[in-house]
Amino acid sequence: MSRLGAAGPGAGASPGAGAPLTRRAGEGYLIPGGLVDVHCHIGLGPGGAVDRPTALAQARTAAGAGIGLIRDCGAPTDTHWLEDPAQVRAAWAEGAAGMAAQGARGAVEPDGRCDRAGEGDRKPGAGGTPPLPRLIRAGRHLARPKRYLRGFAEELDSPGDLVEAVARQARVGDGWVKIVADWIDRSQGADADIAPLWPAPVLAEAVAAAHEAGARVTAHTFSRAALGPLIEAGVDCLEHATGAGPEEIAEIAARGIAVTPTFLQVDYFPSFAEQAGGKYPRYAATVTALHAAHDEQVAAMHAAGVRLLPGSDAGGTLPHDALPAELLAWRRAGLADAQILHLATLSAREFLGVPADPRQAGPVTYPRDPAEDLTALLEAGPAA
Q1: Can you give the pTM of this predicted structure?
Q2: Which of 74, 77, 336, 343 is the most buried (most CB within 10 A)?
Q3: Same domain flag for 189 and 219
Q4: Is 322:310 a contact under the CB 8 Å cutoff?
Q5: Alpha-carbon distance 308 to 301, whole Å?
Q6: DSSP string, 274-303
Q7: Rounded CA separation 42/124 (Å)
Q8: Where is the composition biased (Basic and acidic residues) (predicted)?
């Protein structure tokens, strides 16, 4: 059994220090309750909303990667049906019928679950299929027209509509709301760069509306310009936060705002710059600089005491079994394997308010203790 005797910097108020990160399970090891992915999109694909069989395949792929808890960080479809076994069985049957009609290979489990091809490459072994992760939903992304990925968000015609939209998403989500705080503004032509979507007063009123409704707010942000208003508005969490410099990092730490660094997503920035080419040179220069500084920036956040949250950003470009690779990338910020695993389990669960029972099983088992060698996360097998 591996424990983290002291949470160390970057873990917030040392949640769960001394609690077991892993325990023996037969010939291998398990993580009680599994890994946590706080930035994942179930029900979202590269083109927007996906059908139920595909959403279910996404959830199963995440489970096969050892994930037991997901904060769904914005999706265009309501996935509460995943909590209903009858609707889950119906989705599997629909997926199996679709594959049979196409001559695709797949397997239907005795309980009605189907191994749907095409989402990740993890398949159930002799031990059966792991249970679906628990989902905490943030409703739909909230953005402006042409200021986010097409088909992903509820696009608000006027910035002033944000307050009402936040209140609405707070009612349909599970205690979280997702705001897109910045994106490239292509209307500026060659001067286009990442720019805020919302006036600061509107943003502050929207965050207050979410809090009044009992929901917390997380915000997508790449730029430095968006961070000041977000911090002042009192957001609870920042996704990516690549624009944070020393002053912003100090303020984020002082206010207890959590950050999901999304290394794998930020690693796409050079390709964004290449795609922008000569059409948007300012934007290309910005994302190139943000990527170059990211490893050291995350290290500075950790040293400052910012709570780092594990998030794969699966659902757009990245597959739903990407979290282990994401966590291995955290080594680039100088974090030890046990620290990373603590942040991806006990600390993240404490932040979300969903503690794990140390006696709880995990969705998968590992051949080695991941707290001692994080590469074991890439070798998940059926639960014992």
Answers
A1: 0.90
A2: 74
A3: yes
A4: no
A5: 8
A6: HHHTTTSHHHHHHHHHHHHHHHHHHHHHHH
A7: 19
A8: 108-124
Residue 319 near residue 61, CB atoms below 8 Å: yes
Angle at 156 between CA 146 and CA 224, to 5 degrees: 65
Q: Pick from 40, 114, 21, 50: which is nearest to 338 by CA?
A: 21
Residue with tokens 């002799």: 126
Residue type, 117: A
CB 112 within 8 A of CB 151: no
Per-residue tokens: 202 = 């509107």
What is the rounded CA–CA span in Å between residue 91 and residue 86?
9
Looking up residue 79, the CATH number of its domain turns out to be 3.30.110.90
Backbone angles phi, psi at 101, to 5 degrees: -65, -30
CB atoms closer than 10 angstroms to residue 216:
22
d(CA 275, CA 126): 44
Distance (Å) of CA 167 to CA 38, 105, 172, 215:
21, 44, 9, 9
Residue 138, Cβ density class (10 Å: 0-12 exposed, 13-18 middle, ≥19 buried): buried
For residue 92, give the nearest of 125, 53, 58, 124 by alpha carbon.
53
Residues, the chain, total? 384
Range of lowest pLDDT (62-76, 93-107, 275-289): 93-107
* φ, ψ of residue 33 in degrees (nearest 5): 80, -10
Lowest mean per-residue pLDDT among 44-53, 100-109, 356-365:
100-109
Scan for tokens 């989402």, then name that residue: 119
CA dihedral 152, 155, 160, 166 (to 10 degrees): -40
- Determine the structural domain holding residue 68 and report its residue range: 26-73+75-99+129-137+336-383
CA angle (239 as vertex; 270, 275 as ends), nearest 5: 20
Same domain, 46 and 187: no
Chain mean position to CA 199 = 26
| C-alpha span between 181 and 28 (Å, rounded) | 43
CA distance 319 to 72: 14
For residue 234, the SS3 value is coil
Compute the half-sphere exposure of residue 325: CA atoms within 13 Å on the CB side of its CA.
13
Same-domain status, 61 and 205: no
Looking at residue 182, its pLDDT comes to: 98
Task: Quote the CA–CA distance of 339 and 92 in Å, as a whole number.
Answer: 37
Same domain, 166 and 133: no
The answer, yes or no, to whether residue 13 has pLDDT greater than 80, is no
